[in-house]
Each structure stands twice: as structure tokens, then as C-alpha cells.
Amino acid sequence: MDHSTMQKGTDYMTILLYIGLAVLILAIIGYVLAARINKDNNSRLKKAEKQALKKKHKTWLLISHALLIIAIGSMGTSLIQKSAGKYSLDKLNFNAPIQVTTDKDYGRDHKDGALMYEMKIPTSGTHSPHDLKFGFYKERPGYEKLVHNLEHGDIIIHYHPDAPKELLDQIEYLTHFTTAGAGVLAVPNVDVPADKEVVVTAWTKTMQLDKFDQASVGTFIYQYINKGPEQIPANVRLGGGTM
């Protein structure tokens, strides 16, 4: 990951925000001047003077409107980019050494109803025609839907239902990351081994961690997100749960 490029991008957005604020101040000054000119335009003035002031007032209003539009555009762009950059997938490119098992591919047929799986925490197999929205879950959805999410390239973080809040906050943060049409889900799961803090899965991929480590989980997400056998564009999937 090129940290210098990321820093330059952040600096550019900050400069753009300051420019927007400066232009906004100029717009406010313009509106104040326009208001004063309008106030000076009274009945005691001659017709030519009134017309001149009216023209000046209109000019300052147009200038102020233009400055306001520029200010809103600059600050809006900066804030949107800053918000998007907060969850840029590049932030998860820790390149940490991780141990990942490649699981058997049990297929990807669709079928309604309850299903049985060969693996305790399945990473493939026949699944529900319906998938789930990305995000943090306080109750575990059925594996039937979770496997469907894996098919679309989503990452699932399985945690113990009684995990401490500090850990849950770290996991919840990771569920905001998306790329293309894939995202991250976190679910409580009694099937997580007692000696593991989290189990992270992708399609036919499993990583078990004795202790949660953001660098390891981030690296797993970065490497395996959107690598499922059926990828759907973001403008179609819209955060998951659309099938």
C-alpha cells in the first residue's frame, strides 16, 4: 500500500475543505454588501442612482450565489471523499502473515428450507436463494443465507456471543468495508471453537484466530473479499440482501 499517495489524497481533501470554507466566508461578505446596497437604495435618490444601485445589488447577489455554490461543492466533495476514505479497502492492506485453510467446495445450488452442512461453519454448499445485508448482527442468521453471502464474495466474521464490548467494537468497525458488490458481515456463533476468539470465512476459505488481530482479519478481508464464484455489481446488489 502506498501510504504517501494516501497521505497526499487526504491533504488534498483537507485543502479543498479549507478552500470551501474561505469561499463561503466570501459569499457571506457578498450577501452583506448586497444587503447594504439594497438598504441604501431609498426614495431620496435620483432615478439614475437607484438604477445603478439596483444593478450593483444584483451583481453582488449573483457573485454571492456563485461563491455559495462553489463553497458547497468544495466542502461537500471534501466531506464525501473523507467519509469514503475512512472505509477504503486499502486501509486493510496490512499484508500480515495469515494461516488460511482452503476448504472443500460443496457446490452452490439454491434450495429453500433448512439445510445440513458437512462443515461446522460452512464455507460453501447448497444454500438459500436469499442472502443478507452487510453489517453487524447480534443474532446469528441461518447458515443457509450466510453461505449465499459467501457465494457473492462477502466475508463473514464469526464471534462468540459473549464476546466483550471492546472486541465487538473492533469487529463492528470492519463491517463497514465494502468493495464492488461485496461486503463484510459479523455474526455471533456458538460454533466458534472455545479456544478461538474469531473465525473468519470467505468462499471455501477459513481462518481461525486464537486472539482477534485487526491486521490479520484486515489482511484476510483485503485478500478474499469479492472473490466468490458469483460476483454482482454494487449498483445491483446495494449492500447485500437483494437476491
Question: Could you characterize what this model shows?
Answer:
The protein has 2 domains: 3-86; 92-237, no CATH class. The protein is 46% helix and 10% strand. It has 6 helices and 6 strands, in the order H-H-E-E-H-E-H-E-E-E-H-H. The chain has a 6-stranded mixed beta sheet. The relative contact order is 0.13.
**What is the strand tally?**
6
Helix share of residues?
40-55%
Inertia-based shape = elongated
Poorly predicted regions are 1-10
Strand numbers in spatial order across the main sheet: 1-6-5-3-4-2
Spatial gap, N to C terminus: 34 Å
Query: What is the residue-averaged pLDDT?
Result: 88
Order of helices and strands: HHEEHEHEEEHH
Structural category is alpha/beta
Number of helices: 6
- The domain count comes to 2
Transmembrane segments: 15-38, 59-80
Protein name: DUF3105 domain-containing protein
Organism: Paenibacillus pectinilyticus
Pfam families: DUF3105
